[in-house]
Hints:
Two copies of one chain form a homodimer. Chain A has about 220 residues and is an alpha+beta fold. Chain A has helices at about 15-25, 45-50, 70-85, 90-105, 110-120, 130-150, 160-165, 175-180, 180-185, 185-195, 205-210; strands spanning about 5-10, 30-35, 60-65, 65-70. A four-stranded mixed sheet of chain A has the order 2-1-3-4, with helices on one face.
Amino acid sequence: MNMAEYELHCFAQSGNAYRVALMLNLVGADWRPLFVDFFVKGIPRTTEYRSAINEMGEVPVLVHGARKLSQSGVILTYLAERTGKFVPRGDEQRLEALRWIIFDNQKVNGFLGPYRFLRNFAKPRGHPAVMEFLKGRIDNALGIVDKRLSAGDYILGSEPTIADLSLVAYMYYPAEEFGFDIAANHKHIAAWLDRVRSLLGWAHPYDLMPGYPLPQ
Amino acid sequence: MNMAEYELHCFAQSGNAYRVALMLNLVGADWRPLFVDFFVKGIPRTTEYRSAINEMGEVPVLVHGARKLSQSGVILTYLAERTGKFVPRGDEQRLEALRWIIFDNQKVNGFLGPYRFLRNFAKPRGHPAVMEFLKGRIDNALGIVDKRLSAGDYILGSEPTIADLSLVAYMYYPAEEFGFDIAANHKHIAAWLDRVRSLLGWAHPYDLMPGYPLPQ
């Protein structure tokens, strides 16, 4: 049996996991996905998963030799440092990338993810007041990202970095899953999504990770 | 006029800003707070603030010489590297601290902050369905932190690091402001909050930053 260098605990619908799967693909890593059944079996929430894989009860988890890393922002940082690709140049850029990664996890995809989950997958679906709350926060955060991207091709300027790979997390999923169209309402984000999509090795989350479509 | 080495844009009710104010005080830095009027004037949301201070429309912002840093996780990282204090030791610990800082920003204080805001300060107050949504996420995240702290005095083990200073963000504010008692329901968190409180230089957020109490 062939072992891949990197193994990624993930599933197709997770934009958090997609950040890492995309980076692995873009850097041409030798990797394979390990399917985590979130929707039918609820694996990440089980005691076994929490004790053996990730105490935070989440994907993604990257296995690399003896290392087991979780939180996409950590994994992107690790891969950038190891591969020298998508790495922010210099101390100032390193901190600036981290700034956008934290902002993303808290306010951009940190709200886009739950919004899409509550609209598409959760049973029961999200309460309208919750959806309105999340949407307000999303609109504010997307506005900040769009404004940022009006000043340069990528978040840190002319070159793509891990800050971009973090921020695209949920943005390639179909607009129908959100009920609103991110690209149509934010022209700088739209152009940037096209730019990232044109990078060699880009693939859609539903093609890159197992578990799509969901069993009926 | 005396200039302090560090200046921190902040206000007393912001747990996000408290992380940084607390670290500055714990390391004995020469610092002073710059009051940002969030509640009466809504300063962080203004175009002026966004263009001159922080495009993300948030506090904290640390000014250090020509540098202007935002996102508490970035500032804690910067201060740890500069001062050598509360710094995670070695590569593995550095990534592990970052893991908890991102988790904190997304799911622990990332939800505690809005919950307390919607319960105490927002007009109108938060919708009950929103409060229930946030509380469910908070309970899950606090459970994960409590379990982690059952294994060691601090998040990374025997010594306090920036992961701890991040995670305490909103946890010293009065229980009445949340309507539930974090410490009473999580004994390992309670003991850890006592440990951090006993560090030389610790001060309560309402004593450390300007703007408390709010004008009536």
